[in-house]
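Here is a complete protein record:
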Amino acid sequence: MMSTKSTKPLTSITPSPSTYPELAANAALTLIAVACSLLDRQLSAQAEAFEKEGGFTERLYRTRSQARRKQ
């Protein structure tokens, strides 16, 4: 005859109170990683735009020069 062993219920599905700080820390790390990634993309886009279009002063000068020509 074969003996059967009972299994314990899965308690890892519902987090215990001691895992909440770990979950919160992992969520914070994930959000920080996403924010860093988005900031890196923004910096790259701004650097590319600066190379193509120039800085604020250059764009302002170009806009004013074009406005004077139209008058």
Remarks:
- The radius of gyration is 29 Å.
- The CA atoms of residues 14 and 58 lie 59 Å apart.
